[in-house]
Design brief:
There is one protein chain. Among the domains are: about 35 residues, no CATH class; about 45 residues, no CATH class. The protein contains five helices and no strands.
């Protein structure tokens, strides 16, 4: 018999839930099961420290600096790609690197532009 109402989960997941409920009731269904997947490479404490460092005003100027900081301060050995994904996408961190300024630009030109700029 097929369910005419979509649940948003695969049918085998729903079947597993039902068999769990039949075996031990709501307690069995809601009990925490041990996870069988690979553990995270960074502990929650390390992630918290990294998040605070990324929010700091000085911050990091490159992901290579983040990688070196994790290796030296937190003793976590991770790939550069992992550092980039965690810092940029999971923790939504922005690096604090200033943009280059042209050597031809006159000193004070930016301030003058901001004074005269009308939106």
């Amino acid at each position: 018999m097929r369910c005419s109402y979509p649940v948003g989960k695969h049918r085998t997941t729903v079947q597993r839930w039902l068999s769990s409920y039949r075996a031990g009731g709501i307690e069995e269904l809601l009990s925490d099961k041990p996870r069988s997947g690979r553990p995270r490479i960074m502990s929650p404490e390390t992630v918290e420290r990294l998040s605070k460092e990324l929010q700091d005003l000085e911050g990091f100027s490159s992901y290579k600096e983040v990688h070196q900081w994790l290796t030296s301060c937190c003793e976590v050995k991770v790939a550069y790609r992992t550092v980039h994904q965690w810092a940029r996408y999971r923790l939504k961190g922005k690096l604090k690197a200033p943009r280059p300024v042209s050597e031809k630009q006159k000193p004070g030109a930016v301030e003058e532009f901001k004074k005269n700029c009308h939106l």
